[in-house]
Amino acid sequence: MFRKKRLRQLDNLITAIIVKNEDLNNLRLKYYQGYNDVISVFLLTLDHNLAFYCCDIFSRFYLIDFLRLPFDQGLVPLFNLTAKLLEQVDLELYNFVTLDGSQPTPLFMTSWVLTLFSHSIETLEASRRVFDLILVEHPLIIVYLCVSVIVEC
Question: Which residues, other chains included, contact 40 with Cβ-Cβ below 8 Å and sequence gap of 6+?
Fold first, then answer.
């Protein structure tokens, strides 16, 4: 029963954000696979009203490329930047990950970027820490996090 209630709250929150932005801000946001993981962290951390306002702002300013642009325009530039940074940090690892540069787009990190690691991290507390970092840093911090995870694993 509690799980169904939480899922309904999550669905309602996502719908409210998309509808509000279309009606008030004239933004056509589209749900993407993994958006629910991001919104869940806010919903499990904050009360429902505050979660709505935080998710709305976060969606419009941080996730906007994922919610509005096609896959290749929203994600591929981040993948390319990650590959370039990895190449500078560890050339041998870059060659391994990108198959000697023949596939320079590290697609395996798609869920990391789209869910801000919330889908890959096992505990809510760890997800909250990652979100704290993302919220206080430049939006490209996700690129640095991805490179760090690749290098450290």
Answer: 10, 118
* pLDDT of 72 strictly over 90: no
Q: Where are the domains of the chain?
A: 1-63, 69-153
**Joined tokens for residue 94:** 């870059």
User: pLDDT higher for 48 or 153?
Assistant: 48
Q: Are 90 and 149 in contact (CB under 8 A)?
A: no
Fill in the amino acid letter for 76.
V
pLDDT reported for residue 23: 80
Tell the burial category of 89 from Cβ atoms under 10 Å away from its Cβ (0-12, 13-18, 19+).
Answer: middle
Contact between 151 and 86 under an 8 Å Cβ cutoff? The reply is: yes
